[in-house]
Amino acid sequence: MVVAALLAAAGLAWWNGRDRLPEHLAVGNGRIEAEIVHVAAKYPGRVIEVRVQEGDSVEAGQVVALMDSRELKADLARAEARVAQASEDRAEAAAQIVEKRSLLRYADREFDRAVSLLRSGHATEERVDERRADRDSLAAGLRAAEARQAAAARAEEAAAAEVEGVRARLDDTVLKAPRPGRVQYRLAEPGEVLAAGGRVLTVADLTDITMTIFLPTAEAGRLAIGSEARIVLNAAPGYVFPARVGFVADTAQFTPREVETRSERDKLMFRVKLRVAPDLLRQYQDRVKPGLPGEAYVLLTPDGVWPEDLAVRLPPVAR
78: Cβ–Cβ under 8 A, 6 or more apart, which residues? Predict the structure, then answer.
C-alpha cells in the first residue's frame, strides 16, 4: 500500500507538472538513443584480429577486425592462373588463325590454278580434287581455330569474373566500421569461428541521437514534423539541449481497454521521436551516453515561445 501511494503521488506530481506548462508546450519522458550498427562477418570464417576495444571511438571506413583469408587467397591464385591460361590459349588460337588464313589464301590460289590448267588440258581431275581437299581442310582448320579463340575468350572472361568475385570476398574479410561512433560491445575474440552474419562489434553512431517520448491524442494531433523541442537529462538538469521532432506515429502505440468515450480516447498515446542536430552532437561526442533518461519538451504551435527555464543552455565544449 505504501508503494502504491508513493507511485500515485509521483504520477500526480508529474501530471500536475504537465498542467503547469503553457498550453503550447508538451512534455514526455524518454531515454537518449543512438543509432546502433553491427559489424558482422559476411561469410563464415575464423576471426584473426579485433583492433578495437569497448569504448573506443571509430571513424567510418576504419578497419576494426580481420577474418581468416588464407583459403580465399589460394582461390584467388588459382583463379588468376586460369585467367593466364585462358589468355595464352586465346593468343595461341589467334596465331593459328593468322597462319591458317595465310595458308587458305595460298590454297585458294592453287585451286584456281588447277581449275585453269584443267580447262586448258594441262592438269587432271585428280589434281583439282587434291587442291580442293587442301583448301577445304584449311578452311575447316580456320573455323576450328576461330572457335578455340572464342572459347578461350569466354574462359578468360569467366576466370576474370571469378577473380573479381574472390577479391570481393577477400575485401569482406577486412571488417570496417560503417559509421563513425563508439564501440559498445566487442562480441567476438581472435580465434573464434563465426557463421555467416556473425557479429564482431556493435557500434553506436553518436552523431545520430534521438529520444522517443509518448504524447496523448490532443497533443500529438497538434504536433508538426520539424517542430522545435528541448531535452533535459536527469544527469545534467542544468543544461537544455535543442532538438526537433523527426517522427510522429500515425497510430496509437498503446491504448486503454475501453475507448468509447472522448475522455478515454484522449488517453491514446502516440510515439514521437526527437532528433538532435548532428553538428551539435559532434561537438559533444565524448559526452554523449546512450541510455540516459530525461524529459523532452515540444512546441505544439509554430509561434510558441520557450519559457526562460527551457532556453538552450549547453555545457562548455572540451578543448
Answer: none
Q: What is the DSSP string of 131-171?
A: HHHHHHHHHHHHHHHHHHHHHHHHHHHHHHHHHHHHHHHHH
Q: What is the pLDDT of residue 2?
A: 37
Query: Quick one: 106 and 242 in the same domain?
Result: no
Please state the length of the chain: 319
**Run of H or E residues at 12:** helix 2-19
- Average pLDDT over every residue of 272-287: 85
Instruction: Compute the distance between CA of residue 55 and CA of residue 58 in angstroms, rounded to an integer.
Output: 9
**Number of structural domains the chain divides into:** 2
Does one domain contain both 215 and 274? yes
pLDDT digits (tens, 9 = 90+) for 216-252: 888 888 888 999 999 999 988 889 999 999 999 988 8
CATH number, domain at 305?
2.40.30.170
| Cα–Cα distance for residue pair 33/227, rounded to 1 Å | 19
Grouping H, G, I as helix, E, B as strand and the rest as coil, residue 289 is: coil
Structural domain includes residue 260: yes
Question: 121 — alpha (psi -120 to 50), left (phi > 0) or beta?
Answer: left
Residue 49 pairs with which residues in a beta bridge? 66
**Residue 166 belongs to domain spanning:** 70-172
User: Does this model's pTM top 0.85?
Assistant: no
The reply to whether 137 and 281 lie within a common domain is no
The answer to the question of residue 3 being in a domain is: no
CB atoms within 10 A of CB 172: 16
**Neighbour-count burial for 140-160, b at 16+ CB within 10 Å, e otherwise:** ebbeebbebbeebbebbeebb
- If pLDDT is split at 50, 70 and 90, which confidence band does 12 have? very low
Residue 132: its pLDDT value, please?
87
Q: What is the mean pLDDT of residues 256-275?
A: 70
Rounded Cα–Cα distance for residues 115 and 128 (Å): 6
53 with 87, same domain?
no
Are 27 and 89 in the same domain?
no
Rounded to an integer, what distance in angstroms lies between the CA atom of residue 147 and that of residue 138? 14
